[in-house]
Protein 1
Amino acid sequence: MEEPEVLVYISDYNKECERVIQNLKKWKIPYEIKNINDINHMKELQDKGIYGTPAIFIKGVKEPILGFQKNKIKYSLGLLDNHISYYSSFFDGYKNDSK
């Protein structure tokens, strides 16, 4: 299987950015980081119409993933069954509070 190309725009002292990076490491997914504290990286991101971090761009996925959306990231990386929606209860973190 070809490794996905992942680009993550982050900012300092952002817990969601830290969680994205921690999970990519845990899943052994190669990634590139661009910190928006570098004005050039900030401008790059803003030129894409995005003004917040984390912003995750995955090769072959049309839209970036904004924020830490664990199930959506895993689904987009092909780490889960692609025949099930990432909104499904089969994914991590789903809680049924109806009980």
Note: The longest strand covers residues 6-10.
Protein 2
Amino acid sequence: MTNNAPTDAILAELERLGTAQTRKTYLRHGACEPLFGVKFGDLRPIAKRIGARQEIADALWASGNMDAMTLALLVAEPNQIKSRQIDAWLASANYSLLSGMLADLVARSPHALAKWKKWSASKNEKTLSSAYAMLASWLVKDAGSVPRSCIHEALAAIESSIHDAPNQARHNMNQALIAIGIYSEQDRKRVYQVAKKIGKVEVDHGQTNCKTPDAATYIERALAKNRRKADV
């Protein structure tokens, strides 16, 4: 048995699970070859079976297969992945799903603050988008650990530059604005002010049904839903 045997077996399993229809859907959303087209509902049981295994994640990512790279992000260990490796993975994540999942992984890692500072200053669409996707995930998972300075920086940047930002970054900046409004009560008034000032955020989602929601409306609905849950 070679050192590649576990990865080869996983790739073979992914190939068996792939379907032409799912592959077509992923390609329409921006995925690139090679990929098998494995549904998330099939990936998650495999990830649960593997568990958190950074060495397996490394090998899966190195395969270059989109489904394997997605699975890599499900089994990577937030506390073991290195800063340099995060940057390398981001550079090779040529699909918004992968960069978004990587941002979520970073939000659970010790590198969140450093990556926010670096990525949020970037002019590159993928990098800037990842900064705001990471901030949104960070707020959802542990809002109390997000430094107020990050929130203030994000709100100022969203207010002043969202309409001039690259396409995908506009969407993720809007998502971060929503996350701040939902999870940071002390900043909610400021969020509504920013949302009113920026107005409608236009994003080209290509040949998909994805939409960029109105931040204030989305926040109100989310808070109302949370209140109903609390009353039960």
Note: The two ends are 55 Å apart (CA to CA).
Protein 3
Amino acid sequence: MITQRGLRTDDRPALVALLASVDAFTDDEREVALELVDTRLARPEVDEYRFILSASDEPAELAGYICYGRTPMTQSTYDLYWLATSPSFARMGIARGLVAAMEEEIAREGGGLIRVETGSREGHTAAAHFYDALGFERTAVLDDFYAPDDDLIIFTKRVKTERDVSFHEMDEAGLYDAAFGYRDYGAERDFLLACAREFGEREVKRVLAWACGPARHLFAFADVGIAGIGADAGKAMVAYARRIAGPRRSGSAEVTFVRADLDEKPKVPRASLPVDLSFVALSGIHQLGNAKDIEKHLKLAASLLAPGGVHVIEATHPSDLTAAGVSHTEWTEMVGDKVIDARFRMHIERMSPERVVPVSLEVSYAVKGAPAATAQKPQPSLRQDGEWFIPDLAGWRAIVGAVPDFTLAAALGDFNVEVPFEHQSAWRLILVLKRV
């Protein structure tokens, strides 16, 4: 299991090894990074440089770390100084989790502006795309700052006072919501809108989320005045989404929830259709067990989408079905006094020749600092077992090619319209289909 914690004196050798393993850093950069470590260790009572580490229990190994702190002579601005992850834990969400933890700490302190600087040379390209995907804005560029053709790029992001993650009853839907609370729904909304601008031909006024789950994406759309429809096969999940929606704040657009599977037409008022943008997030598409079922879903999605609109599918990267991929992840979320542990596994050793693989998700929680008597009581938990059909890119092209109303406009590798599937930093397969 991977957990987050603060910096300890005995972490220095592991940090030296971690920095040495990251090819993007120069020797000078590694030296400066260690200077900040030493400053913190020498004066732990001063929080000029704060550290959050992600560490693996078995084997005991440092997966990554982040260093940040308040910007001198400002009231609520923070600098993100260093962010590094071990290549051994690539594409496991370590960096995203560290940034989310930093943002949560900043939110608890009243919110503020985060500033991060990076270069434009080839070794820093992935870092720039990473910050783009997390919703940071490219605020300024200083040409040739580090060296000829190596510009300084300044990113900024504003953190709200409170993290927009809440959940109610500790039922399965609430546990699922809490487990995936690390996702930046506002940034992902902006990415989906960017897909519509880049590859579609419609202004987005209404969206449809298939397999919507707790519907956090739809709430993010509603916050910017875009109405939405959420379709999910689970009765409990739809009821949960309606509960947490509550009375929407002034200025938010309407969100409607219906029960419908991926191959079932949602029963909504005719005036709600067609939509301008639809999507299936978080590998939900893989619930469909074969190419014909996905083809059926695409034909249905096309029938509900206006010409020029786009349908976006966030799919699992095909390389994760190989020995070199990421088939098993564990993470921990902290929400208030609750500690949520989650484990997801694709059992690739049992994959069929048709690329159908058994999957499992387990989520449990405990109350931090609870009395022993309370801690010993059985707590609600979530376990989901199923089978996913995960095509490779050629398989996806064949499926889309069988649906006359769609063309494959793009195959992306991250939540960034500029990162193609073939890019070395690609960790998802995101398909953008245009309605013709």
Note: The chain is about 25% helix and 35% strand.
